[in-house]
Amino acid sequence: MLSDNPKLFFILGFSMATMVAISNFLVQFPVSYFGLSNLLTYGAFSYPITFLITDLANRRFGKETARKVVYVGFISGVFLTLFFSTNFSDLISMRIALGSGTAFLIAQLLDVQIFDKLRKKIWFIAPLASSSLASLIDTTLFFFISFYGTEVPWVTLAVGDFLVKIFITILMLIPFRLLLKKVVDGQKYSSNAPLV
Fold this sequence. Notes:
The protein is 73% helix and 0% strand. The protein is an all-alpha fold. The chain is globular, with a radius of gyration of 17 Å.
């Protein structure tokens, strides 16, 4: 199915890599307003977009190609993160890169599987359930690997991060719905849910 729209695959893969790199950079900065510095980082606002990208790829091409988008995003995202936002003399920065890569790959592949299992349900069930569960796994793994045993208040940051991800996931249903018919391009696959 990939061969019928390689341009869309490239756009999704590039978008994934870009969002991963941006999120990995932003997660290093706590939100300093309203006393949220121990509860939230800016990465929580950008990262849920990666699940939107995965779910659109899954809806359009199926789970095998969605996995390829995840791998493209993973490889490119890790490269961009290592090149642009990892300070190799700082252990925390290196742990962030490791935590990000591990959490991303596991959570995104989980998202692909859950979405595929639920794709025949009403249009919003698959992206909402898959993104929410994958966000929980991603957040737990990332903050544990990156900050466990440090002075960073990683548990409260993880809770705040997860709550914002759920909020953004719900908001992402709007662009998902708007992009759904455009991305699916009018094609009907036997495994796809109705777009109503």
